[in-house]
Amino acid sequence: MVSKKTNGSTEARTISERLNQGAYSYYSSTAVVHSGDRSTAAGLKRFFAAALLSSSSIMVLSSPASALGPAACNPVMPANGTTVNCTGVTTSSQDFTGDNLTIIADENFNQDTSGNTIGAQRVNAGIFITGSGGTIQHSGTIKTGEIPEGMGTYGRHNGLYIIGGTGNVSAENTATGSITTTAVDSAGIQVSATTGTSTAINRGTINTSGENSDGIYSSNYATSIATNTGSITVTGDGSRGIVTNGNTTTVNNTGTVSATGSGTYGVHASSFSVATTNVTNSGTITQSGAAGMTRFGAAAIFATGPTVNVTNTSTGTITGTDVALRIGYGNTVTIVNDGTMNGDVNAARRGPGRIKAVSTLSLTNSGTINGQVVTDGSFAASITNNGGTIGDGTYATHTGAQDDVVTITGSGNVINGAFRDDGGTGVGNNVINFNQSDILTLNGASRGYAFFGFETANFNSGTTVIAQERGIGTNRYMGTSQVNINAGATLSTSSMNLGINTNQLTVSGRGTTRGTLHAPAGSNIVVTGGDTTFNAGGRFRVGVASDTSAGYLNGGSGTVTFNAG
User: Fold this and answer.
1) How far is it, in rounded angstroms, from Cα 505 to Cα 403?
2) d(Cα 42, Cα 22) in Å, to the nearest integer?
3) What is d(CA 476, CA 423) in angstroms, rounded to the nearest whole number?
4) Omega of the bond leading into 148 within 30 degrees of 0 (cis)
5) How many of the other CB atoms lie within 10 Å of CB of 484?
6) Are 300 and 265 within 8 A, CB to CB?
7) Which of 1, 237, 426, 534 has the fewest CB atoms below 10 angstroms from its CB?
């Protein structure tokens, strides 16, 4: 296969180089176009006719050396499977065509194409491979751009760039590497292929400032992987810090990602077919800016796919202007937060036609979510707060109208807001469980309630105190809602009034382990809409401060029954 090296400007190319490039461009037709990829992937190549291949090759080889510009990389025209070493200073794009090429740019490699006049896309890219397979390892300095700046029809002057056909492709910016792009649609690293694995790795520094210019981008119809242990900063509208797109995609961040501007994302990860999107953050991801023209709305992390797994470890921090984590769609979504999320976790439908669909969602929080967890009425959600902090002061969770389950467990829970559910499909199907092992105080209010809309509320352990004159409410419209205070649990209040709005309040025990409804001295507990039953082992505890100050239970229009035992 013919290989070549081009200067950063199309005007500077010789006639023979143009013929060679034109022939390759025609005979290297596209097998597929990646969804979401802004470049055309060179798929299965048509082979040149021997005469054309021979003549163009001869013309290139006969060109004066001066026409090729400074040679920072050697060999200039590598054969398939060759390793190319790059060092020194250059102002031209280092452009290679061939299969299974390896390009190594050392710490002395210093490239700046930003001063070159352009008339086409890609011509000011840093290190660029077209062909099946391919590996780039960069440890130096790359800056790309274009003159004139901001020409929306050009761009794609990526720092490290591989348009692969079949086979694995990989591009790495090492710990000493620095990549800067200033033009539109110009990523720090962009790799794509049709089979195998596409891998983009940043261990150094990447800065992009043009619109729609991503930090690192990995695309493949099979597997795509993006890893950041360094620093990525994108400041152009519509830009994304880390992007993966493929049948199965994986994002690992232990470094710093910052996305600033309208319609930006810190991480944008998507998979398709029967496959998986995995995002793991142990570093810092920050997004700042309005939603702009994005379909689903800006976020620090956007994840979508048939199966979506998002993990924020204990050292991870995710911050969005409004949304820390947004789920686009997914059959099965699993979210684990042991770190800090600043902003909502949002899986509600958004965008034209509200076409998003999530079948099931499971979220476990043992860290801090300074925002609401918002799900949709079209799927069932399971949310567990295990000793974590959750809520934005208005809501802790806002679940939809399916078979949702919200559970509070562990110790040290901090609830900043109310638990709201929009009503389930039948008795017992929408449930809130209080399984904590210590004293939990609820201050939030949804329509004046600490929680509202669930068909069943179970107090299974620990003590739950309703504060600030809040009530608790279940969905009485089905006529079968219930509040159960079970053995080992206590429901109490620190207010003068506690309203319990339910069709049935039941207090039960087991042997010497009692369920307790506690009315402290001076408080008034009122059950509205239903009956109150104390089963065997159920206990009503009354606080008495004086002859005129004691706790009080008002059964409202229902009956109050104390069964023997």
Assistant:
1) 21
2) 14
3) 10
4) yes
5) 20
6) yes
7) 426
| 530-555 confidence digits (pLDDT tens) | 999 999 889 999 998 777 788 899 99
Tabulate helix, strand, coil % of the chain (nearest 5).
Answer: 5, 50, 45
Euclidean distance between CA atoms 162 and 171, whole angstroms: 8
Identify whether 306 is preceded by a cis peptide bond (ω within 30 of 0). no
Half-sphere exposure of 261 (CA within 13 A, CB side): 23
Confidence check: pLDDT of 197 > 90: yes
Report the alpha-carbon distance of residue 104 to residue 120 in Å, rounded: 26
Kindly compute the dihedral angle of the four CA atoms of residues 69, 70, 74, 79, in this order, to the nearest 10 degrees. Answer: -10
Question: What Rg, from alpha-carbon coordinates, does the chain have?
Answer: 31
How many angstroms separate the CA atoms of 185 and 200, rounded?
A: 17
Return all residues near 44 (Cβ < 8 A) that are at least 6 apart: 29, 31, 165, 166
Q: How far apart are CA 237 and CA 220, in angstroms?
A: 25
| Nearest-10 Cα torsion for 285, 222, 238, 227 | 30
**HEC readout, 103-133:** EEECCCCEEECCCCECCCCCCCCCEEEECCC
Asked whether 407 and 437 are in contact (CB, 8 A), the reply is no
Is it the case that residue 420 has pLDDT exceeding 50? yes
Q: Are 315 and 366 in contact (CB under 8 A)?
A: no
In angstroms, the CA 415 to CA 39 distance is: 46
Q: Is 27 left (phi over 0), alpha (psi -120 to 50) or beta?
A: alpha
pLDDT at 15 over 60: no
190 closest CA partner among 227, 223, 165, 215: 215
59 pLDDT higher than 60 = no
**Confidence label for 71 from pLDDT (cuts 50, 70 and 90):** low
Strand 549-550 versus strand 544-546 pairing type: antiparallel
Q: Are 175 and 203 in contact (CB under 8 A)?
A: yes
Q: Which residues pair with 507 in a beta bridge?
A: 485, 534
